[in-house]
Amino acid sequence: FLFFSIGTIIGVRGMEKSLFSQGSNFIKKWWILITSATLSYFLLTTSYLNSGVFNDLFISPILFVSSSILLSFSLLIISIKYIKKTNHFFDNMSKNAYGIYIVHYSVVVVFQFLFLNTNISGVYKALIVFPLSFFTSWFIVYLFRKITIVKKIIG
User: Fold this and answer.
1) What region does 139 belong to: left with phi over 0, alpha with psi -120 to 50, or beta?
2) Which of 34, 67, 94, 110 is 20 to 30 A from 151, alpha carbon to alpha carbon?
3) How far apart are CA 85 and CA 81, in angstroms?
4) Contacts of 150 by beta carbon, 8 Å cutoff, 6+ apart
């Protein structure tokens, strides 16, 4: 819910008026966030490897959440700061992301059902189902965007 709310706020205000704009202190002091993310991840890994003080029912979940948030924001900031050129593949994926989000669940369910009775390990099923579901969802959205009313709804 937190990431959804942050995304909504950024979407309403626009990237250039958010804490992710090129001139913001958040972007200028990127090294603090990356250092915090690294430290948080180190503490998290230590807590899982050692059954010491961090293996508490209260501290470990907090470390997991903070590590996830800090690492996500670090990757976002690195992308904003250093990836400048456009890419047709990612631009197209970005244009279709909302539609992919809408249809992906049913596509994943269909592919998981197809692999239900196969004698393949879960890891291999996931490695097969993920790309199949992603690209099938993308293709379905591509076809749906050709319908005028659908294009108005999903962008």
Assistant:
1) alpha
2) 110
3) 11
4) 144
Q: Which amino acid is at 127?
A: L
* Full-model pTM: 0.56
C-beta of residue 18 within 8 angstroms of C-beta of residue 10: yes
Helix, strand, coil distribution of the chain in percent, nearest 5: 80, 0, 20
DSSP code, position 56 = S
Distance CA 80, CA 83 (A): 6
> Is residue 40 a contact partner of residue 63, using CB atoms and an 8 Å limit?
yes
Whole-angstrom distance, CA of residue 55 vs CA of residue 46? 9
Q: How far apart are CA 110 and CA 100, in angstroms?
A: 15
Q: How far is CA 150 from CA 97, 99, 112, 139, in A?
A: 14, 10, 27, 14
Res 111 pLDDT > 80? yes
What does the pLDDT look like over 5-62, one tens digit per residue? 877 776 666 666 666 667 777 777 778 888 888 888 887 777 766 665 555 666 777 7
pLDDT at 73: 82
